[in-house]
Amino acid sequence: MINRVSHPLTYENFKTSTAEQESKITKLLENLYKGKRIIKLRNDPTGVNHAIRLDNDIFKINVYIKNIGISKGNLRYTEGYLQSLTNILTRAKEIAVQGASGTYEADDKKMISKEVNALLEDVVAIANAKGPDGYSIFSGTKIDSEAFKVTRENKISKTSKDGAGPQIIKVEYNGNQAEKKTEVYNDIHMSNNYPGNVIFFLQNQNIISSINTNGFAVKENTKIYIDNIEIGLTAGDTALDIVAKINESSAPVEASIDPVLNSLSIKTTTPHQIWITEEKESNVLQTLGILTKNNDTKLPPYNLSSSTEVRSRSIFDALIELRDTLYNNKEELIGSRSLAEIDESLKRLLISVADLGAKENRLDRSYERISKEAADMKEDMVQYTDLDVTKAITNLNMASLAYQVSIGISAKIMQTTLLDFIK
Predict the structure, then answer these.
(1) How many domains does the chain have?
(2) Which of 171, 184, 270, 375 could form a disulfide bond with 316, CB atoms 3.0-4.6 angstroms apart?
(3) How far apart are CA 5 and CA 221, in angstroms?
(4) Measuring CA to CA, how many Å separate 17 from each of 12, 192, 405?
(5) What confidence score (pLDDT) does residue 134 get?
(6) What is the pLDDT of residue 145?
(7) For position 106, which CATH number holds?
(8) Can you list the pairs that 77-83 forms with residues at least 24 positions away whose Cβ atoms lie under 8 Å?
(9) Which residue intervals define the domain Flagellin N-terminal in the entry (predicted)?
């Protein structure tokens, strides 16, 4: 191959060479300025793919870490209220023991009943407590309303000149039974609340219908829901079939046919308030006397038929009864049912506090594990994206030196004339 020997050709070659060197130097300077090895996608496509994947994973883990922090905060806030509730019930138990001892006169018990009334007010205040976010703690996921509705009445003042003002006579749950769950890792969710219809209930709830089940049969396929558990019913199912299907489901209840009334009975297996509904077009539980007619106009747990017998007791019921039995000097009730119910409430609260502590420990372990995972990912990402500064400076110096040498040599060559080539 024959090359032409002329300055224009040499100049073009010089321009191409110096442009490449300048581009290399510019890239090295840009990398040093930004501290990154990859500035543009074309710099390292494979490295970019790894970096994007790691960046997405790190973002997700940071969300999980934030969720864990929020969950721990909610649990600790709840724990504080449960500890306060435990202290209140401990004091109520002491009062019940004193009231049942027979050492106090009737007037003394009336005075003590005022303290129980104050304790009841404190329990209601805890039940309707709001978290740091301003939302109700014990109302399930119905967080924008008070967990419990309180009914007051001038009950004592009607029969006594020294009676107090309006007192609590009934406390009804106003929330729902749903748990607030937070994702703390890939598809791993943890509840961080305790619905009030669980925490403040101390006995299994038993719902007994007054309707005889003889001759009953489901007319068409339908579904009923107990504590949000779906239970499918088939046309032709008898009351016994319904009992069997309820008991085979995962709902925390036990169904049976009442031996006296021959009616449907549903009882919880753990103390809580039952949530019962059925499909809008269904009337199975209405016909069986469990739900009120046109039950879609009322929401659980207040959609039960008025003819049902509902047996359940809450912490509020126990304290209301203790207050009233002290005031009315009924020692036999103070030392039997009131004391036993308060003692049972304390046991259940301690179980809840222990469960809460176990959740906190699990969150702590999850936090440690995924924090280390995030640190490892960031370290891996450095290998793909961050710049080795020492190596980059060395490469920059070498490129700059090569550039200067190239310019120097080219300058000398450009001084050569045609006569120099034909000597």
Answers:
(1) 2
(2) 171
(3) 97
(4) 9, 66, 12
(5) 86
(6) 86
(7) 1.20.1330.10
(8) 77/131, 77/132, 77/137, 78/137, 78/192, 78/193, 78/194, 78/356, 79/353, 79/356, 79/357, 79/360, 81/126, 81/129, 81/137, 82/194, 82/199, 82/349, 82/352, 82/353, 82/356, 83/353
(9) 6-141
- Asked if residues 159 and 196 have their Cβ atoms less than 8 Å apart, the reply is no
Residue 192 DSSP label: -
Residues 321 and 332 occupy one common structural domain: yes
pLDDT digits (tens, 9 = 90+) for 69-99: 999 999 999 999 999 999 999 999 999 998 8
Q: What pLDDT is attached to residue 2?
A: 52
Which two three-digit tokens encode residue 179? 């748990």
Distance (Å, whole) CA 373 – CA 68 = 15
| Structural domain includes residue 30 | no
Residue 415 CB neighbour total at 10 angstroms:
9
Question: In 136-180, which ranges are E strands?
Answer: 148-153, 167-173
Q: Are residues 193 and 227 in the same domain?
A: no
In this prediction, residue 164 carries a pLDDT of 59
What confidence score (pLDDT) does residue 163 get?
53
Instruction: Pick the last residue of a domain from 352, 373, 394.
Output: 373
Domain shared by 169 and 269, yes or no: no
Based on the domain organization, do 177 and 73 belong to the same domain? yes
The predicted-structure confidence for 390-413, as pLDDT tens digits, reads as follows 565 666 566 666 666 666 666 666
Provide the domain limits for residue 236. Answer: 206-311
Instruction: Judge if the upstream peptide bond of residue 252 is cis by omega within 30 degrees of 0.
Output: no
Residues 162, 304 within the same domain: no
In sequence order, what E strands does 332-386 have? none
Tokens of 136: 């109700």
Rounded CA separation 13/1 (Å): 17
Q: Clarify whether residues 212 and 300 are in a common domain.
A: yes
Residue 412: inside a domain, yes or no? no
Residues 191 and 79 in one domain: yes
